[in-house]
Amino acid sequence: EVQLVESGGGLVQPGGSLRLSCAASGFMFSSYPMTWVRQAPGKGLEWVSSINSGGNSISTLDSVKGRFTISRDNAKNTLYLHMNSLKAEDSAVYHCQRGWRGLGDYRGQGTQVTVSS
After folding, report:
1. What is the per-residue pLDDT across 45-82, written as a single tens digit (0 to 9) for each?
2. Alpha-carbon gap, residue 100 to 108, rounded angstroms
3. CA distance 6 to 10
């Protein structure tokens, strides 16, 4: 059974940082591209960033480029999202998803990120 479990969210002040993690199990993690998406209250899913299976090709949403960095540790079956210089508009539930950009087939339950003073 494919499982994706996110963690690391929380309440952070504007300008702060967080590192999200996604623990994957039930499939060969190192063979799949992986993606972070987010959903703000009252809005649809928004793609944030994707990384290929080997970790050497990355695509990132323009509005978070330079602030967010996706990475992965295939030995630990874990996907990460390092978020710096957080803004109020980054507040959302962040989900990891198996697949490249919008072509995902499994998604985790998500972790809440709230940016507020």
Report:
1. 999 999 999 999 999 999 999 999 999 999 999 999 99
2. 15
3. 12
Environment class of 47 (CB within 10 Å of its CB; exposed 0-12, middle 13-18, buried 19+): middle
What does residue 76 show for φ and ψ, rounded to 5 degrees?
A: -105, 5
> What are the tens digits of pLDDT across the range 20-49?
999 999 999 999 999 999 999 999 999 999
Distance CA 5, CA 8 (A): 10
50 with 35: CB under 8 angstroms? yes
Closest to 67 in 3D by CA, of 85, 94, 47, 48: 85
